[in-house]
Amino acid sequence: xxxxxxxxxxxxxxxxxxxxxxxxxxxxxxxxxxxxxxxxxxxxxxxxxxxxxxxxxxxxxxxxxxxxxxxxxxxxxxxxxxxxxxxxxxxxxxxxxxxxxxxxxxxxxxxxxxxxxxxxxxxxxxxxxxxxxxxxxxxxxxxxxxxxxxxxxxxxxxxxxxxxxxxxxxxxxxxxxxxxxxxxxxxxxxxxxxxxxxxxxxxxxxxxxxxxxxxxxxxxxxxxxxxxxxxxxxxxxxxxxxxxxxxxxxxxxxxxxxxxxxxxxxxxxxxxxxxxxxxxxxx
Length: 283
Known about the structure:
This protein is α+β, with helices and mostly antiparallel strands. Helices cover 45% and strands 20% of the residues. It has 11 helices and 8 strands. Strands 1, 2, 3, 4, 5, 6, 7 and 8 form an 8-stranded antiparallel beta sheet that branches. Strand 4 and strand 5 (65-66) form a beta hairpin. The chain is globular. It starts with a helix and ends with a helix.
């Protein structure tokens, strides 16, 4: 049997897709697996990937280092065919892949769209279509539902082949549920966890009331804004403790904690050890 994207991915992950659907030569598949770092062999066809859940910090291997940018739930990625890729998950992988047959990339713009790696970009319409198809695949399969899934897949196929719109960022919705704005806020927190990131400032950045922002943010990440900020700070603190000779007080200050005692209490809950105790366990 000839290899396909799905057989290559299944062999790499050691399991079949959680759900899948076909539209002619196109294939839509959801992959869920607890995994660390792994290398994906070159694929037969380009693939449009949507990060739908799981670990909110996925990195791409870039030449000799892990990418500074990260994929979070709500991001899209394009992987060209013939391109080996390295990934760091360190938790649950939960993505949807849409394999795009090379033979159907007829126009030059479609070919250009899929010939280069694009990691962790915003595509609100593509992501919304993907999520809706996914939810339908878990329902009872009636003739009406099957027809609806086919229509959604046709829409996703047309959107995917169209490529990026020339108007760029103007297409990002300004409405409350803007995936782009939430994505930017999450990246800001991960890049600078030591900043204050007050609920008032974050909700203003999203253009929402604080209570509405909390609901939208938790649906997107599975955590409240405060929990997400604390997790980002503690992840950064763990890296600093393991990779530097900074004192515990310095690490606490550099990661935005108001005091060393607050940092120690939070880190003990996070890692099961005090910061000093955890540092000794890895030496």
